[in-house]
Amino acid sequence: MASKPLTGTKVLLMLVAFFGVVIGVNGTMMKLAIATLPGTDVDSPYAAGLVYDREISAAQDQAARKWKVNAHIERRNDGGASVQVEARDAGGQPISGLKFGGRLERPTDKRADLAVELTESGIGLYRGGAASVAPGQWDLVIEGEARGTRVFLSRNRVILN
Which of 6, 14, 46, 76 holds its CA 20 to 30 A away from the CA of 22? Predict the structure, then answer.
């Protein structure tokens, strides 16, 4: 059996094919990485930076109120989660009439975030739930509003089993 000689044209075609595959795979991976962005905290860091001073002012106002807000979350057997928030003022009196809302945020994938509607079930006691909560690490974000203005914000890492 006679072997064919290795010519310059064959070597050139092999090099073009090799680098074509490498560039194609790199391009595909780059496109997928840019399109998904699951691990970012905010979609636009520039826009988040513009509201930074307002966030600092809101945090100082919240600290001056000296409210005691306790949140409890547990994962139910059916795969959902129950959230309970108890809000008290600086004197220990229950705070009524606030509109609380919550979110369960996945630290690694914003696409898995879940909203939690909280309704006042007693004086200063707010309850709600979310369906189909996967086990693992979550950030429990609680926001309280009064007259259309956010007066409370809390973010805590929780582990649900």
Answer: 6
Residue 8, Cβ density class (10 Å: 0-12 exposed, 13-18 middle, ≥19 buried) = exposed
User: What is the pTM (predicted TM-score) of this model?
Assistant: 0.70
Task: Write the burial class of residue 30 (CB in 10 Å: 0-12 exposed, 13-18 middle, 19+ buried).
Answer: exposed
How many H helices and E strands in the chain?
3, 7
Separation CA 52–CA 59 (nearest Å): 11
Answer for the pair 131, 105: CB distance below 8 angstroms, yes or no.
no
88-110 pLDDT, tens per residue? 999 999 999 999 999 999 988 88
| Cα angle 136, 138, 140; round to 5 | 145
Burial of 81 (0-12, 13-18, 19+ CB in 10 A): buried
Q: How far apart are CA 116 and CA 124, in angstroms?
A: 17
Spatial separation of the C-alpha atoms in residues 152 and 142, rounded to whole Å: 8
Dig out the tokens for 74 from the structure: 């547990």
